[in-house]
Design a protein that fits this description.
Elements: H1 4-11, H2 14-19, H3 27-60, E1 62-70, H4 76-87, H5 89-95, H6 99-118, H7 142-150, H8 153-165, H9 182-189, H10 193-197, E2 203-204, H11 209-219, H12 236-253, H13 255-263, H14 279-282, H15 291-296, E3 300-301, E4 304-310, E5 321-328, E6 347-353, H16 369-382, E7 390-396, H17 398-406, H18 411-414, H19 425-443, E8 451-454, H20 460-481
Parallel strand pairs: 1-5, 1-6, 2-3, 6-7, 7-8
Antiparallel strand pairs: 4-5
Helix pairs in contact: 4-5, 6-8, 6-12, 7-12, 8-12, 16-19
Length: about 475
């Protein structure tokens, strides 16, 4: 049973005791103390009010979730760059110079593709007079051999650019499955430059990792990066490309080279990251990528990444809207990662590259690219998790489709149901749109509107208008579902 004295001791609040004013406090000290307490109370109330306002703001914040789907090289990453260019222009401009290294690698890889195509072409006998080889293919003349030798420095530049673009901890980001990892690549790079010259495609994980690594490597050679200050930084890759520019131009314009590429069905003009028709500009020592260059640049990504941003140009009801755009890898091995992102998504942009009607998948050469897109579209349309999600279809790469049709490639040869329809872009795009629309209508678990566009996502003018329409549609539906509209 505690005594009265012990209860009194236990009831004492040491904090209260410590905060009591001193018993011998003077009037002047009391006035100072009360003034300090009032100021502390004012600051505390201001902090509380700030927290209350922030919490209220978070409750009102509108978050739009958009998912980009489609097979590999369908244009997802380019579409994302369009969103960034249009609605976060300041951030897009700040990063633009970093894409110069990507464009440099694109040029080197185009040259490597040409040289690889020439590698199996035999030199003519000394007394042959340059006649064709016994196997019916063209022989490579001595001047092209000399040209290949003069372009040997590009092997070193390729290795240099790969080291700049890929962070040291991303050993699995060098090439496609089945080829050497980055660690193996770096181990053997010094032993065989030919290995780097013939390596598989470089790819990185989406997001800012590669940009951070590139910015760090560039800052090591000079001041912080900006389009103006970066021009003063010595760029070995740009210097070598500048010195090799004439030889690259000669190689690309050579009639025999064009014939070899034609026979091997290598259409570099259709590849992402094609800059060989802009060599004089992009190999200049003071070259800074413009918006179109960034959109055309090719850097293959794997994995899933979420990009968050508020539209800098937003106004009215869109102000304060946070966009979360999820970019997922499109190769067959990565599609299993799509489903977890179907939950709580406002809209999906599905990209189907209809120019691929005469192409096969890089990861499975037994599968036609167009057929693969159709099967993917069916799967997305029929997925019950997406029954209430708006699907936006981009029939992409219409510019490449038009070029193919104009060159004489018959669509009906590859798509039997196209039959004897006119072999032009307008008829072909209407045909594809009706086919994909019919799949959407037949396989959707619930009735919903069909939004379909014929796009060329590297075209800034037309794509800007399309994305504005998509933005308005997505925001309007999101606000309606959130009961804010």
């Amino acid at each position: 049973m505690p005594t009265v004295a012990s209860r009194s001791l236990n009831d004492v609040d040491p904090l209260d005791e410590a905060l009591r004013p001193p018993f011998d406090e003077s009037e002047e000290e009391r006035a100072i103390r009360l003034s300090e307490e009032a100021e502390a109370k004012r600051i505390s109330q201001a902090i509380d009010e700030s927290i209350r306002v922030e919490r209220q703001s978070q409750k009102k914040r509108s978050i739009v979730r958009l998912l980009l789907l489609g097979q590999s090289e369908s244009g997802k990453s380019t579409t994302l760059r369009h969103f960034q260019r249009l609605y976060t222009p300041n951030a897009f401009q700040e990063e633009r110079f970093l894409w110069r290294s990507v464009i440099q690698l694109n040029i080197v890889r185009s040259v490597r593709t040409i040289i690889d195509a020439l590698s199996s072409v035999r030199l003519p006998p000394v007394d042959s007079g340059g006649e064709d080889s016994d196997d019916g293919g063209p022989n490579i003349p001595q001047e092209l051999e000399f040209l290949k030798m003069r372009l040997t420095p590009l092997r070193h530049i390729e290795a240099l650019l790969i080291a700049k673009l890929i962070p040291a901890n991303e050993d699995d980001a060098l090439s496609q499955p089945g080829s050497s990892s980055l660690s193996n690549y770096k181990t053997h790079r010094s032993r065989s430059s030919e290995r780097s010259w013939r390596s598989q495609e470089v790819f990185v994980r989406p997001g800012a990792t590669w940009k951070g690594a590139l910015a760090k490597s560039t800052r090591a050679n000079g001041p912080p990066i900006s389009p103006d200050s970066a021009l003063g930084i010595r760029d070995e890759a740009q210097e070598v490309l500048h010195s090799c520019s004439d030889d690259i131009q000669t190689l690309w314009n050579d009639k025999l080279v064009r014939e070899v590429l034609r026979r091997r069905k290598i259409r570099l003009e259709e590849f992402p990251g094609f800059f060989l028709n802009d060599l004089e500009r992009v190999t200049a020592l003071d070259f800074t990528p413009n918006d179109d260059d960034v959109l055309r640049a090719r850097l293959k990504t794997v994995g899933v990444s979420e990009y968050r941003f508020e539209m800098e140009a937003a106004a009215g009801r869109e102000s304060g809207t946070e966009w979360r755009i999820v970019d997922v890898g499109g190769s067959r091995s990565q599609r299993a990662t799509w489903v977890p992102f179907f939950d709580d998504v406002d809209a999906i942009i599905f990209l189907a590259p209809i120019s691929g009607f005469d192409q096969v998948l890089a990861e499975d050469r037994s599968v036609n690219r167009l057929e693969d897109s159709v099967l993917l579209w069916k799967a997305v349309c029929s997925n019950r998790l997406l029954a209430n999600v708006d699907l936006v279809l981009f029939l992409n790469k219409c510019d490449i489709l038009e070029a193919k049709l104009k060159s004489g490639t018959r669509l009906s040869k590859y798509v039997r149901s196209y039959a004897d329809r006119p072999n032009d872009l307008e008829t072909a795009s209407k045909y594809f749109r009706s086919k994909f629309s019919a799949i959407h209508r037949e396989y959707s678990p619930l009735p919903r509107k069909f939004y379909g566009f014929c796009t060329s996502v590297t075209d800034t003018s037309t794509t800007a208008g399309i994305l504005a329409s998509v933005r308005d549609m997505v925001v309007r539906r999101h606000l309606k579902q959130s009961r804010l509209l």
